[in-house]
TrEMBL record, chain B:
Alphabetized Pfam families for the sequence: FtsX
Subcellular location(s) of the protein: Cell membrane
UniProt domain ABC3 transporter permease C-terminal: residue ranges: 230-354, 674-788
Signal peptide: none
Bilayer topology annotation: Multi-pass membrane protein
Protein known as: FtsX-like permease family protein
PANTHER family in UniProt: BLL1001 PROTEIN, MEMBRANE COMPONENT OF PREDICTED ABC SUPERFAMILY METABOLITE UPTAKE TRANSPORTER
Keyword set, alphabetical order: Cell membrane, Membrane, Transmembrane, Transmembrane helix
UniProt KW Hydrolase keyword: no
Transmembrane segments: 228-251, 263-286, 292-315, 327-351, 371-393, 400-423, 443-465, 666-693, 722-744, 765-784
TrEMBL record, chain C:
Record flagged with keyword Signal: yes
Pfam families tied to this protein: CrtC, Lipocalin_9
Originating species: Parasedimentitalea maritima
Signal sequence bounds: 1-24
Domain AttH: 56-225
Keyword Signal: yes
Coiled coil stretches, renumbered: none
Keywords: Signal
Protein name: Iron ABC transporter permease
InterPro entries associated with the record: AttH-like_dom_sf, AttH_dom
Length: 227, 803, 350
């Protein structure tokens, strides 16, 4: 019998979560009875084939999408029956996201983009942001706009933005998927280092075994189930 | 959170300043045109109210005779029965140019005369003098120069409390000047009445109760203001197309931002509230700018409007513009409501926007094209209900309902119609590039269709109103040639001089046509009856619309009357019908003549019959027929004759030129609004094309990659835009002609009382088509130039960003 | 003599200037108007009618009434004529202007109304035989012989009255020298006669309903062209009917340097004594605040020649005629050496 009691250090608990997408005629199960947990400060890599449900799981954890059954608890709060403003609050204060396509705000410059999430959460720690910016090598680029940056630079901004708010949990969905190999490993190294320093737990979706090996744990998802 | 989120939202406009300016300008233009019309209407209404209150009969009801005049004895009987009434005698007082309203009141009983007189600005103060045998005349200083008949005038007292074109005096003086002794036009019922009165309808069944006198004018001018309001609304609607486009784009481009913000924990309701606040802010800024713009436009147009109103209706609007709080508020409110209406769809989309899935622009465009059918059906419904309103309602309302339904309906059907045309083109395309062009145009349609709708409306309005004005002008010119057939028009100072003048003309090979008329009360208004002498001039030239055989024979033998179109249409009297000119004077109508530029009803009988039935028929004016070559000599001779000092001579050409000038001035406002609307539509196209620019790069890049140069692409862009504008213009033509027909045959008849033949002016259409093309070309030039100069790397980015 | 001079000023729409000019310029000369002549013999019934060659004229009736509700009432009915020029003319051009005043005083309320009319059109006028004076629907209609029996009607927005008045054949009272009544030390004069002997029955219409009344009435007739001296600023006029049957008409014309008083004593047997200037004395005892003015509403009247010393008190201190040109006019009670009732008119209190 598994002890489901949450220990003090458990940040994320995923219990028997299933999710279907309505398709033509019949619904298609994307996640089936997935259970997983993550300790504070722990990092976990989620690997799997394209379409295995990795991103969906990540979106569910990020309170961006809704599961059909089961339960997800983040920092002691269950996402079941949480309304939009409570979910928004969770995203604002506890969870940060890094996407594959960066999703920077094109009308804000690098500095503004980095501080945006922190400002939204009303948790601006200038010292931390300055050091973060400099560690990400973005100090010189503060006045630039996203369209003037390379892909690697843009993703570094996105990582800075996600960490500037000092989230308890960083969700990253193929953060280097849009980058070439060299840029990719550089960015990934930097991200992992900074995550560790910030003390955040990391939930990383990746298809790269090499990347996955650098994390504390690996979970493989296949056809919506943990293998 | 709010500040950071709002800052992120607004940063978009900072990065896209041109787009913001477009949005603000569109909204400001829309608000401006609407507010201008409102300001003009408000000013005119205030002027009428002021005129009414100046005359003091505002709250007072009046008694008017059902026919003829009220004899003095009837007034005295009613006073003796206890009713407190105040008599008024009013008539037109012919001057050398036009006539003045001469109003006689009993100074002792008139409710507000003492106020009017007290505020006199010059001359002696109000005193006993006004009741002396010589009397006094009271008038506005601005009226003074029109007072040109100098027959032993009593002293003049100037007072700006008196409306322009009105001369006021004691009834004893006025009945002498009008030569209508013992006659009363109406009785003002004073506010306070004693106990125990018998009802008026028992005491004086031949009189009827009427609320105040301004009713007639306001009914006539109402239609003019309705016209203006319709124009203002049209401009506003066209402006809203721009707003809809800009707001839609502003939201479209920020979908990614919204999603990012949502992912970072901005709640949906806050996002919506922030977006609404942003729009509100934009609306207020643009609305304020629009108010300034509207004020300037109104100030520029007001002199022409007042010229129109006094030319067409004889209503006076003073030339200065005042700021009214109601106007300010309604202007801003229009801007806010307009913005909200224009952005409802966009906001709703955001509210429904899924947090995750990001459907591409292409797909949404596809969805939009599927909507074309729905919108077209809605358009068809509007056309149908507009047409149906013709069956349900009468007159002006029906006319405007038909116009609104048909114009809006057709505009809504435009995308579908264009898409059919483009599909047809696609089917017939021979080359791969041609196929792409047609297909791409069709794909572009949803984005630009709103602008094209605006263009359609503006063009149709231009064609319609232009056709109406030009048809009117052409008809008017022909009519003037007929109506102003005498070579010289003469106004004598007084009857004595007139008689001398006629005698002097004997033996000079000049035919004298007296122009004499009398005004009789007629259905709550006045009927001017002209008495003419039989002359070939009338038989050959008078502009008859309908006439029985031998009409002029019957007029000249005193058995029949001819009437103007206004009278015919308003009372539904046509040749063969009987007309009661007064209660005791009935004649058969044998003809109807056109009488443009005159709002009032009119009839013509032979002079002896008029003199038999009417007392006050001044003999001061004449038309003279003489060989055109001797006109100048005659004028010189008259000017040298000492006896004829003060006589006015106007030759035919002069009169025509003056009439035409008045006519042209009348439609300056229409022309100006027309042009402004077209300008707004051109702006809408520009906005739309700029909007499409960013979305179109992904569509253009592959074509470029396939070996079409940027230059070629730029030209194609230009041609595409021109082709769409041209197609729209062609569709606008029938719509414009329909509009013209409604204006000429329905609106005009209701508003002015005459129906006009419709003429077609293909050259004007061509000019308009060119104008539309130029507007489209200018609008397309900016994006095309951008395209021609775009860096290949930017086009490459399209591929780089593609997943 | 009543509010006439003063009202005429309004009537003529002349600017009212300081008292040095007299009221409304009436102290100036008479511009072709006829002037009263001493020794002229009044002729009736013709002189009951109007005299268009004189500048001003009035038919002035006041009545002290008692209602069946036991309250005291006063009624005033006045028709003024004023000429812009001498003579009459038909139609709107007539120089004759007419003004009517109707007043009704209760112990607590004052009702009044005003009518204006142009002469020459029939809206207002006076005919001598049969006698009829009218403006709009206000009428004073005589039944032959003239002035012996009158029917009196007037109505305003909130009141109306209809009175039946008759004498027992008493003679008219000609004031001054057989109707030639001097108005100033400088010799200005008017023609002035009265019929002070009417017995009245009738009905008052008040907001609370009709009230049947009985009482007595006093008719004044006066016409002139230049009745005021240049420095006279107003007057106090008394018509008093004593329970003894005697009657007294007396007036004070308030002048800048000196007051001018005159009047007539009408004894119960009908003898008339013209008072000499100075005989009649009136002293204001108490002032009331009326329409933002201080107006004497209690008087001490003495007439030593008749051993008369009475106190006059207003029935309603607020008997204010707020017409275009306002004045005080109302019923009074008499106590002292004589008792009775009467009417008081006061003008020129600014």
């Amino acid at each position: 019998m598994v002890d489901w009691e949450m220990t003090d250090n458990t940040l994320l608990q995923i219990r028997n979560v299933s999710k279907c997408y309505a398709g033509l005629g019949e619904s298609r199960a994307v996640l089936r009875d997935v259970s997983l947990d993550l300790q504070a400060g722990e990092s976990i890599a989620l690997t799997g084939e394209s379409g295995s449900g990795k991103s969906t799981l990540l979106h569910l954890v990020g309170a961006l999408d809704y599961y059909d059954s089961g339960e997800i608890e983040i920092d002691g709060t269950s996402l079941t029956n949480l309304n939009d403003s409570a979910r928004s609050e969770l995203r604002r204060n506890t969870v940060s996201l890094v996407f594959q396509q960066f999703n920077l705000v094109p009308s804000l410059n690098v500095a503004q983009n980095i501080s945006l999430h922190a400002r939204l959460a009303n948790r601006v720690d200038l010292t931390w942001i300055t050091s973060l910016t400099s560690r990400l090598g973005l100090t010189e680029l503060g006045d630039r706009y996203p369209e003037q940056l390379s892909g690697g630079q843009q993703q570094r901004v996105a990582i800075g933005r996600a960490l500037a708010v000092r989230p308890k949990l960083l969700l990253a969905d193929e953060p280097t998927g849009n980058l070439d190999e060299i840029a990719s490993s550089a960015v990934m190294d930097l991200m992992l280092k900074l995550v560790r320093e910030s003390g955040a737990a990391l939930f990383l979706v990746t298809h790269s075994v090499q990347v996955a090996n650098q994390l504390d744990r690996r979970v493989h998802l296949s056809a919506g189930k943990i293998a | 959170m709010k500040r950071a989120a709002l800052g992120a939202l607004l940063s978009h406009w900072w990065r896209h300043r041109l787009q913001l300016i477009t949005l603000l300008t569109g909204l400001a233009l829309a608000t401006g045109l609407w507010s201008a019309v409102q300001a003009i209407n408000g000013e005119a209404k205030a002027s009428y109210d002021l005129a009414t209150s100046k005359m003091g009969a505002r709250q007072n009801e009046t008694l008017v005779p059902k026919a003829g005049f009220i004899p003095l004895s009837r007034y005295v009987e009613l006073r003796r029965s206890g009713w407190r009434l105040s008599p008024v005698l009013e008539g037109h007082w012919p001057q050398n140019t036009g006539s003045l309203r001469l109003i006689g009141v009993d100074l002792l009983s008139h409710p507000t005369f003492s106020n009017i007189a007290k505020n006199s600005t010059s001359g002696s103060s109000y005193s006993l003098d006004a009741l002396n045998s010589q009397g006094q005349l009271f008038l506005n200083p601005k009226t003074l120069k029109q007072l040109t008949v100098q027959v032993d005038l009593p002293p003049i007292v100037q007072s700006d409390q008196i409306p322009i074109d009105v001369v006021l005096g004691d009834i004893s003086l006025v009945e002498r000047l009008l030569q209508r002794p013992g006659q009363i036009t109406r009785l003002i019922i004073l506010p306070e009445q004693p106990l125990g009165l018998h009802p008026l309808e028992d005491l004086a069944p031949e009189l009827q109760l009427q609320s105040y006198d301004a009713g007639q004018i306001s009914r006539l001018t109402d239609s003019f203001h309705l016209n203006l309001t319709a124009f203002g609304l049209l401009s506003f609607a066209v402006g809203l197309f721009i707003v809809h486009g800009s707001v839609g784009l502003g939201i479209e481009q920020r979908r990614g931002l919204f999603r990012t913000l949502r992912a970072m924990g901005v709640p949906l309701h806050l996002l919506t509230v922030l977006l609404l606040s942003e729009l509100l802010l934009i609306a207020i800024v643009a609305g304020s700018a629009g108010l300034v713009l509207g004020y300037l436009i109104a100030a520029a147009l007001l002199p022409d409007v007042s010229a129109t109103l006094s030319g067409l209706y004889g209503a006076t609007v003073e030339g200065s513009l005042n700021l009214r709080p109601g106007w300010l508020i309604s202007g801003i409110a229009m801007a806010v409501v307009g913005t909200l209406i224009a952005s409802t769809q966009a906001i709703t989309n955001i509210y429904k926007m899924p947090l995750l899935a990001a459907p591409g622009l292409q797909a949404r465009a596809q969805a939009a094209s599927n909507q074309q059918y729905g919108i077209a059906v809605l358009g068809l419904g509007l056309i149908a209900s507009g047409t149906a309103s013709m069956l349900v309602f009468d007159g002006l309302i029906a006319g405007f309902a038909l116009l609104a339904g048909v114009m809006l309906g057709t505009a809504l059907m435009l995308p579908l119609l264009l898409s059919w045309v483009l599909t047809l083109g696609l089917r017939n395309a021979r080359s791969a590039l041609g196929e792409w062009i047609w297909a791409d145009m069709r794909a572009q349609l949803p984005g630009i269709s709103l602008a094209l709708m605006a263009l359609l409306l503006a063009l149709a309005t231009n064609i319609g109103v232009g056709t109406m004005v030009s048809s009117f002008r052409l008809t008017f010119l022909g009519w003037m040639d007929q109506r102003l057939s005498a070579e010289l028009y003469v106004t004598a100072k007084d009857e004595e001089q007139a008689q001398k003048f006629v005698l002097w003309l004997v033996g000079r090979d000049v035919t004298v046509l007296p122009i004499r008329w009398s005004e009789v009360p007629f259905h709550e208004t006045k009927l001017r009856i002209y008495g003419v002498l039989d002359d070939p001039t009338y038989r050959e030239k008078w502009p008859m619309l309908q006439a029985q055989d031998g009409a002029w024979d019957r007029v000249s033998n005193g058995t029949a009357v001819i009437i103007n179109e206004q009278l015919a249409r308003r009372r539904n009297l046509w040749p063969g019908d009987d007309l009661n000119l007064t209660s005791s004077w009935k004649m058969t109508v044998v003809g109807v003549y056109s009488d443009y530029g005159n709002p009032h009803e009119q009839a013509i009988v032979t002079l002896p019959v008029l003199l038999l039935h009417a007392d006050n028929v001044p003999n001061l004016r004449f038309g003279l027929r003489l060989p055109p070559s001797s006109v100048q000599n005659l004028i010189k001779e008259v000017q040298q004759e000492a006896d004829f000092e003060g006589i006015t001579l106007v030759d035919q050409n002069d009169l025509k030129a003056r009439s035409l000038a008045v006519f042209d001035r009348t439609f300056v406002v229409t022309g100006a609004l027309n042009l402004l609307t077209l300008g707004v539509a051109g702006f809408a196209i520009l906005t739309s094309l700029l909007t499409l620019w960013n979305m179109r790069l992904p569509q253009l890049a592959p074509i470029w990659a396939l070996g079409i140069t940027r230059r070629q692409l730029a030209w194609l862009e230009l041609w595409r835009s021109l082709a769409l504008a041209a197609l729209t213009a062609i569709l606008a033509l029938p719509l414009g002609l329909l509009l013209a027909w409604v204006l000429l045959s329905i609106i005009n008849v209701e508003a002015f009382g005459w129906k006009l033949p419709m003429y077609l002016f293909p050259l004007d259409w061509l000019r308009l088509l060119l104008l539309a093309l130029v507007a489209a070309a200018i609008a397309a030039a900016i994006p095309a130039r951008k395209l021609a100069l775009i860096k290949p790397s930017d086009l490459l980015k399209v591929f780089a960003h593609e997943r | 003599m009543n509010a006439k001079f003063f009202l005429t000023a309004l009537f003529l729409c002349l600017p009212v200037t300081a008292s040095t000019q007299g009221f409304a310029g009436l102290g100036t000369n008479a511009k072709g108007f006829a002037i009263p002549q001493r020794g002229a013999v009044l002729s009736f019934p013709e002189d009951h009618g109007s005299h268009p060659n004189f500048r001003i004229e009035w038919w002035y009736l006041t009545a002290n009434l008692k209602g069946d509700d036991g309250l005291d009432y006063g009624v005033q009915w006045t028709l003024f004529r004023s000429a812009l020029r001498p003579g009459s003319e038909d139609g709107w051009s007539s120089p004759q202007l007419w003004m009517g005043h109707a007043g009704l005083t209760t112990p607590t309320h004052q009702f009044f109304a005003e009518r204006l009319a142009r002469g020459g059109i029939g809206q207002a006028g006076v005919t001598a035989e049969p006698f009829m004076a009218w403006i709009d629907n206000w009428e004073m209609t005589g039944v032959r012989p003239a002035l012996q029996h009158l029917d009196l009607k007037a109505s305003g927005a909130d009141f109306a009255y209809d009175l039946d008045m008759s004498t027992q054949g008493q003679q008219l009272v000609l004031h001054g020298d057989n109707g030639y009544s001097v108005k100033s030390a400088g010799g200005q004069a008017s023609y002035y006669y009265s019929q002070p002997h009417y017995q009245i029955t009738g009905t008052l219409i008040l907001p609370n309903g009709p009230v049947a009344v009985t009482g007595q009435g006093w008719l004044d007739r006066e016409w002139s062209s230049q009745p005021l001296a240049e420095d006279q600023s107003g007057w106090d006029w008394f018509s008093l009917s004593f329970d003894s049957g005697d009657k007294l008409m007396g007036f004070v014309l308030r002048g800048a340097s000196a007051d001018f008083t005159s009047g007539s004593w009408i004894s119960a047997d009908g003898t008339i004594t013209a008072l000499q200037p100075g005989d009649f004395q009136a002293l204001a005892l108490k002032h009331s605040d009326v329409s933002r003015r201080s107006i004497p509403t209690e008087w001490k009247i003495t007439l030593p020649t008749q051993e008369l010393s009475v106190v006059i008190q207003a029935v309603n201190e607020q008997s204010w005629m707020g017409t275009s040109f306002p004045y005080w006019e109302g019923p009074v009670t008499i106590s002292g050496s004589h008792t009775g009732r009467g009417y008081l008119e006061m003008t020129g209190y600014e």
